[in-house]
Each structure stands twice: as C-alpha cells, then as structure tokens.
Amino acid sequence: MQSIARANNLALSATRGRVYGPLSCEIGNGLTVVSGEAGSGRTSLLLTLAGRMKQSEGELSVLGHALPRRARAVQKATAIAGFHDIDALEESVTVGAAIRERQAWLAPWYAIVPRVDDAAVRRVCLPVFGAPGEPGATPMPPADTVIWDLDETQTALLRVALAMLAAPRILFFDQVEQLQSPEARSALWARLDALSRGTATRAATAVVASVAAPDTAIWAQLGIAPAVIAITQSGPDGRSEHGDTPLSLDDLILERA
C-alpha cells in the first residue's frame, strides 16, 4: 500500500474541549472510510487531512507535505465535497450554471469561460456519474436542469464532479449518510470506489469518505472493501496546547488555496 497520509497522535481541541483524537493512522491509495457518530469530530478530521483546518496536537503528513506548515500545497492537491455549508449547491441555479461557475473559479482571471451545454455537462460528469452498465451509474442531468429538481444521488455526484474539476490527487467526501435511501448510498459508494480505482483513460484518485457507521451490507453487495478508520465520540476533556483559552474551530480554519 502506498501511503498518502500519516498521522501520529493527531488531535484537535477547541473552546468546548476535545474535537477528535489523539489518533494515529496511515491512509493509502484507494477508498478509505472514516467512521464515527455525530460528535466524533470526523468532519473536522477530514478538513484537517485536506489542509483546511489545523490540528492542535500531533504530527500529520499528507502527500509528503507536513501540515499545517505546507497547507497550501495540500489544498492544491486535494478537493472536498459533501461538506455542509462549504460546497453546498445553490438550488435555484441550473446544472450548467453551477459547472460554469466552478470552471470560472479555477480558470485564470483573463480566461473566458464558455456557456455549458449538454455536451460539456457530459464531459464533466461522465467520470463521476458513470457510463451505462458501470456500477452505480446514475443518469446525468441536462445542462438546463435546476438543481432543485435533482434527486439526492444526482446532487451528491454533481458535488463530486465539481470537486473533481480541480483534478485532485485526493477527494474527501463528508457524511455519506446524508443520502438517506440505501439505493442512493449504494450508488454513491460505487462511484467513489470507481474514482479510487481509475480506468485505462483516467488516473485513480484516492478517496477518503466519512460515514456515521460502516455500510457493510452495501459494501458486500457491491463487492468493495474499503479501509476503515473508526473514531469515537470525543468528550469535553478540556485543554489543548493553547492552555486555558483553547481556540474556536473558526480560528483553526486555514485559508483556502
């Protein structure tokens, strides 16, 4: 297994006490699942691994970059999707408009980003949504579809497709259980696993996803076996290295690249 991230006694504390950790683990290529109930700090852990939040204790290296010192390098090599209030989609805009906005964000300031038609949507979404016959393949919406009209699987996969426009080496997806139906979660797991494996024409992207509890029955049906990192709920055990006045989580957010 080629290691993409190593953590040694990694922990995060904030104003209300311990958020997660201490945790020591190694993450490799493929699909990795961080499992933990609400309050376990899994969202903050994923943001730390993605270089978007700094830990308060321990050592962390992602893609050979020490965090938080090399946060910008990690941010440029990773992408996030499924995070509440971070990459949420504006429900009143169309799929084409959402893709064009993301492309404009990634393009040089002087570039002219063309209108996104159905063919452009297919180019962006096909690797994520999958072609007919592929595991978890989901119909791609036309460019003029309003996001409000997407089902939960299409919405989640569109968020992934927008994140993948940055061509990340690692994709982080938070809270798979936000897809409530087993069928929707099955499709999402299948597509995340497919991204982590790659194809003859597309390089693999390591995927780290979080979920409240392992979807073992769904994984068995799909024939996938992700590596699982289980974390437990952290209690308010008090202090961090910042002494009597631990920082708030907002203070620990790192500037995005």
Structural overview:
- This protein is α/β, with parallel strands linked by helices and 257 residues long.
- The chain is 31% helix and 22% strand.
- It is built from eight helices and nine strands.
- It has a five-stranded parallel beta sheet with strand order 6-7-8-3-9, with helices on both faces. A four-stranded antiparallel beta sheet has the order 2-1-4-5.
- α4 crosses α5 and α5 (152-164) packs parallel to α6.
- The longest helix is centred in the last third of the chain and has 16 residues, at 182-197.
- The radius of gyration is 18 Å and the shape is globular.
- 44% of the residues are buried.
Helix % is 25-40%
Mean pLDDT: 91
Number of DSSP helical runs:
8
Largest sheet: 5 strands, parallel
End-to-end distance:
29 Å
Radius of gyration: 18 Å
Q: Name the helix and strand elements from N-terminus to C-terminus, one letter apiece.
A: EEEHEEHEHHHEHEHEH
Strand order of the largest sheet: 6-7-8-3-9
Count all strands and give the number: 9
Question: In a nutshell, what does this entry contain?
Answer:
With 257 residues, this protein is of the alpha/beta class. The protein has helices at residues 42-49, 71-77, 95-106, 118-129, 152-164, 182-197, 216-222, 249-252, and strands at 3-14, 17-28, 31-35, 57-62, 65-67, 78-81, 170-173, 206-211, 227-230.
